[in-house]
Amino acid sequence: MKRGLLLVVGVLVLGLFALAGPRLKADPELYDFGEVAEGLLVRAVFTLTNVGDAPLVFTRQPSTSCGCTSAPLPKMQLAPGESVELVALFDSTGYGGHLVRKYVYLYSNDPAGERKTLTITGYVRDAAPYEGSASTLYYGFYLLVDLRSPEEYARGHLLGAINIPFSELSGWIDRLPPRFAIYLYDESGAQAAQAAQMLQNRGFAAVRALSGGLVGWWNAVGDAFFVWAEGVEPTPPSGTPYYGGYAVQPQYVARSYQLIVDLRAPEAFAAGHFPGAVNVGLHEIPAWVETLPDTGEGRLYIWCVDEGGTAACQAAQWLRAHGYPDARCLIGGLGQWRIRYGDTLLWPGESEE
Fold first, then answer.
1. Which of 98, 173, 180, 329 gets the highest tally of CB atoms within 10 A of its CB?
2. Structural domain boundaries of the chain?
3. Tell me, what's the pLDDT at 337?
4. In the prediction, which pLDDT does 19 show?
5. pLDDT at 276 > cutoff 70
6. In this predicted structure, what is the pLDDT of residue 349?
7. How far is C-alpha 279 from the chain's CA centre?
8. If DSSP codes are grouped into helix, strand and coil, which group holds residue 70?
9. How far is CA 65 from CA 39, 45, 74, 87, 196, in A?
10. Quick check: helix, strand or coil at residue 213?
11. Is 102 exposed, middle or buried (0-12, 13-18, 19+ CB in 10 A)?
């Protein structure tokens, strides 16, 4: 009897001792993301809780194995019962066709162990030909700006261009994206060259004027990618083309012409979308394709985007099957874009096309 009582007391004492002091609990300890396409950025969230009876102190910020990053812990000390979230990111680029295991290391004053290991695992499949990553879109994005008057723009303009009249350009300095390529054009190229120099002086290193303006475009590639308003008789631009500095050649733009098609509802589109994007519903794609201009000798790269990526990938596959072999969808949709880049390039407003 005494021996049994002593055993029970011993177990209780050991249990109390196990809970004494700080204790770090992670939920989950293993994050399985299942299967993703290469190029997706996996976001793993861990809840860290102090289940002990003394303050838990993180002695340093978490570290990770190759291929992962983690956000800094928002606080370095947890009272008993207190929790904090840790966000870790795994970039699947370069891991196509592989099962991966990546690790996040936590450092604390937990007497059970100064280092605790969390695991991120899953399978990265090869991306399909119609899938493109957010980073591919980010580094390949350019903004096409028509500097003519709203009336001239309304009659006809290059596909996907937004309209910022030359006289209003200075008011857009704080809104234009300085890290991305910006191609400016007007009728002859003269104002675009002035605008390009002004923006270059303001830190827009990748801004260029379309060489020769629309006149130069017509001379080089004809009416490729030009959209006319309904009822307007197509008329080639007239005048003397201006060929100055800070220029990009029409053939260069036409060879890799880019258009973003946003498949979300109009309300979501208006709340924030890529500048120059067109808003088309998934079931409207076949009819919309009929309105696209001739591409001439150029190539049209269509990016399909939506919130999660599902409808966009359906649209990209349909477009590839119907004469647009360079169509692709944004893997993970705009949700994935925001994980990587926040609201960068997502402008509120109406469609510019």
1. 329
2. 22-127, 132-341
3. 97
4. 54
5. yes
6. 73
7. 17
8. strand
9. 18, 16, 21, 14, 44
10. helix
11. buried
Cα 34 to Cα 97: distance, rounded to the nearest angstrom: 13
Q: Which two tokens stand for residue 258?
A: 């880019």
Residues 151/152/157/162 CA torsion (nearest 10 deg): -60
pLDDT confidence of residue 142? 97
CATH code, residues 22-127: 2.60.40.10
Whether the per-residue pLDDT at 5 is higher than 50: the answer is: no
Q: Across all residues in the chain, what is the average pLDDT?
A: 92
Fold of 132-341: Oxidized Rhodanese; domain 1 (3.40.250)
The burial of 103, by beta-carbon neighbours within 10 Å (0-12 exposed, 13-18 middle, 19 or more buried), is given as middle
In angstroms, rounded to a whole number, what is the distance separating the alpha carbons of residues 27 and 217?
Answer: 59
107 neighbors 76 (Cβ within 8 angstroms): no
Euclidean distance between CA atoms 292 and 303, whole angstroms? 14
